[in-house]
Specification:
single chain, 576 residues, alpha/beta, Rossmann fold, six-stranded parallel sheet
Length: 576
């Protein structure tokens, strides 16, 4: 006989779960004992939200589910992480050690309706009501998380079931008998529909590809690169998602965002066919409508799940198909090679990208050479460029914040064009949730212990989630944190200054916080930088220290192109 907590751990072990994150609590002790007995690594975190973000980071990097284990009151703390995972389709298994099943509905100790609370932001939320079915529910939750449109799931396991005893083989006599099989079905294209779409693409003259989350989660990035290279079609990455392809892929132009990568506007306005793969026609894509996508073009959406297809109803053509299968099957059809593409279409997009890089760097140099900038004052774009140029090829980068995020996105595209090849670039998703950066950086370091991991974080973002830095010290995972310290929530204050009649900002300022001294106090390395000429040397010293380090950089807040455009459009209205 074994406890329910052991059955849970064994069921997750059967699913090859390698990462569990928690803030240890009494309701979860049987599960923790089970993880210990099954030798599944558990990371203890200072807060449940951090546990959720660490699980999210590991899942996004490895593309394998991980577990966030919380108690009933901790469940409420983990909701922001659950929401972020929901937005980015991250298949995390959230498990709540909940109040007793025996007294459910009677005001039991720490009783909350966690199942109903999780339901809107997960693919599946259910309470285990019989300990002998724990393996069944784990198997069901796992399969739902990774199948089709991936995403987080939630299981609530009452504490009395956690502590109760059951036969070790409970549930083994029901199908599927081999519950450790992790095969996820993939959708293959319906032949006539694929033929129609190939015909439409081949007749176009100026096609582009917009690649999204589905390409990443289906592990189809190599197929995408091969498809674009074979046909010389420019690729654009949906905003708010880690990069799908590396800088070595010449066809990768940048973000599908007319503010952060202005040449994409020209591409959208001049193309006649958009092939959107593994992405959603949501607010970032203006729901497929003009002026972002002109009426004249053909909009094709390829998605690997029916639920995602339903979000793309405004497309001209829909194909239910795994992204990798679409790329492979299309290249098998000779018609796609006998196309009518304009011979200089790709070269024109590449030329515009090169010109944009030169103009952006020139504008930055011109601006920071004026008298008001001549005392070493640091522009946030210059900070991000200097950080990335100091990093070696193959290093990993995370950024977190409002304007810090936006400027860093632009910088990443600039240095990529100039030959910098970073291994991973991660950042918050479409909810723009601050405070993920440290957790994601720790996840990268834990999976790549011999590599350098750098985080560029706004001061507000670090204050939102900086407590998670303790995990880096606790687990001996040294990361480099660069604080873009402009003294407040600059992204918000700039919107206020354009919206408020007074032209001022309110409730967005911070005091002068010595972030670098916090790291020194915890046993790490810290340094303050106030002059732009000192940025690169300070970063090198931080890396050479082999410690978790903070370079606290005083910058002058500068409105990013996307915030400027957004606030201009919303003059005299509230910010969404």
């Amino acid at each position: 006989m074994v406890r329910g907590g052991y059955l849970l751990a064994k069921a997750l072990l059967d699913k090859n779960i390698k990462h569990v994150f928690t803030l240890a609590g009494g309701f979860c002790n049987p599960a923790l004992e089970g993880f210990k007995d099954c030798q599944i690594p558990v990371i203890n975190c200072p807060h449940e939200q951090i546990a959720g973000h660490l699980a999210d980071g590991h899942t996004r990097i490895t593309r394998e589910p991980s577990v966030c284990l919380v108690g009933p009151e901790g469940f409420a703390n983990a909701i922001p992480a659950m929401m972020e995972a929901w937005g980015e389709r991250s298949p995390i298994i959230f498990i709540t050690g909940s109040s007793t099943l025996k007294r459910k509905g009677s005001g039991g100790f720490k009783e909350i309706d966690d199942v109903s609370m999780a339901d809107p932001i997960t693919k599946y939320s259910f309470s285990v009501t019989d300990g002998t079915r724990i393996k069944e529910f784990v198997d069901r939750a796992y399969r739902i998380a990774v199948s089709g449109y991936p995403g987080p799931v939630h299981l609530s396991i009452p504490v009395d079931i956690m502590f109760s005893s059951f036969p070790e083989n409970a549930g083994d006599d029901e199908r599927p008998f081999m519950k450790h099989l992790n095969y996820s079905p993939k959708v293959w294209p319906e032949p006539s529909s694929l033929e129609y779409i190939i015909d439409t693409i081949s007749k176009s003259k100026r096609p582009i590809i917009i690649a999204g989350h589905g390409v990443w989660w289906s592990k189809s990035e190599d197929d995408l690169a091969n498809f674009a290279s074979e046909l010389k079609i420019p690729i654009f990455n949906v905003p708010y998602h880690q990069k799908v392809l590396g800088e070595e892929t010449k066809e990768m132009m940048g973000l599908a965002d007319i503010h952060q990568y202005q040449p994409s506007k020209w591409a959208f306005n001049n193309c006649d066919c958009i092939i959107m793969v593994g992405a959603r026609l949501d607010n970032q894509m203006n729901f497929g409508n003009p002026p972002l996508f002109p009426k004249s073009l053909k909009l094709i959406c390829i998605n690997g799940s029916d639920e995602e297809i339903q979000l793309n109803r405004s497309a001209d053509f829909l194909l239910l198909c795994d992204p990798g299968a679409f790329f492979k099957e299309t290249l098998k059809n000779n018609k796609i090679y006998n196309n009518d593409f304009e011979s200089n279409w790709f070269e024109k997009n590449y030329e515009l990208r090169s010109n944009w890089v030169k103009e952006t760097l020139s504008d930055l140099q011109t601006k920071t050479s004026t008298p008001s900038w001549n005392r070493g004052i640091i522009h946030p774009l210059q900070l991000a460029i200097d950080v990335m140029e100091t990093m070696d090829n193959g290093d990993h980068l995370v950024f977190d914040g409002g304007n810090t995020h936006f400027w860093s996105e632009i910088a990443a595209n600039l240095v990529a064009q100039n030959g910098k090849i970073l291994s991973k670039i991660m950042h918050p998703g479409s909810f723009s949730l601050l405070g993920l950066g440290v957790s994601f950086a720790i996840s990268l370091k834990r999976i790549n212990p011999n590599d350098t991991v750098v985080l560029i974080s706004g001061d507000g973002a670090f204050l939102s989630g900086g407590l998670s830095i303790e995990v880096a010290f606790q687990e001996n995972l040294p990361i480099i944190v660069i604080i873009d310290n402009n003294g407040g929530l600059d992204c918000i204050s700039q919107q206020q200054e354009r919206m408020f009649d007074s032209g001022s900002h309110f409730a967005t300022d911070f005091r002068d916080i010595p972030f670098h001294e916090m790291f020194i106090g915890l046993g790490g390395y810290g340094e303050l930088v106030t002059d732009k000429k000192d940025i690169k040397s300070a970063i090198k010293r931080a890396i050479e220290s082999k410690k978790t380090a903070c370079i606290n950089v005083k910058t002058r807040g500068q409105i990013s192109p996307i915030v400027a455009a957004t606030s201009d459009k919303r003059d005299k209205s509230s910010i969404e």
